[in-house]
Write a structure and sequence with these properties.
alpha+beta, Helix Hairpins, Immunoglobulin-like, 2 domains, 5-stranded mixed beta sheet, 12 strands, about 20% strand, elongated
Length: about 290
Amino acid sequence: MRSNRRLRLTAIPIALVSTVALAGCTTQMQLGWLPTEPGTTNQVDRVIGLWVTSWIVLLVVGVITWGLIIWAAIVYRRRKGQTGLPAQLRYNNPIEVFYTIVPLILVLGFFAFTARDQTAIEAPLAEPDTVIEVYGKRWAWDFNYITDDVYYAGIQAQETGPNNTIDPESLPTLYLPVGDKVEIRIESRDVIHSFWIVDFLYKKDMIPGDNETNYWYFIPEKEGTYAGKCAELCGEYHSLMLFNVEVVSQEEFDAQMQALRDAGNVGRLGPEFNTNTNLPGTTGVTEEE
């Protein structure tokens, strides 16, 4: 009789937690609350799969752990009329081996799947169709469209109105042709920044200095407007280091490149505009100057 009662007390909290979890399986939950949609790039589904699988496994571990805690608190609580200490138990080798081996397996599994997916994401794409060089600078962005030999020089986001809302027209815009193999060369003009396109579920650090270029390869697969920002605290106006990404058809992309060409933005804004003169190999201002 007592055994059945304990079983019921154990099953109740587990059933409640499971019911709440299953009832809330919305589309957003199926994405693990990630700010994107499947198929946004050729890499997004891989990241979603890794993330969602990870939190489901950890949710199961959490439910079991919470259930055991609640079960122990109820079943082994002090009853009315009981005095003194309960029977003391020590050294249960099977349980100790279990709670050592299972977490080790989980950690190794997470590491293996993360390493597999990161290796796939970081792999260069052969013969990219579009090559773009991105410079982060306090507190804006320069985009060099290497393939088309044009550039765009951005300014930091401008605040307007009494509530200091962001003027969307002031944001730099990076154009990407849908379906193209894209290579992004990521560099910094001054301090460490981080290039982050939120919906693409990936970001790369921008390290100042020669030979510190990072690369990101992907294929944008859905047309649309996506938000981008700096993900590394870089100074006073870090929060205004924003940009937009427009994934467009090849025809619209070519039109945007032609508009830059017509505006005289031909060539490349290279390292000659870097402002960090403190790096090894750079020459500072002399006394004569």
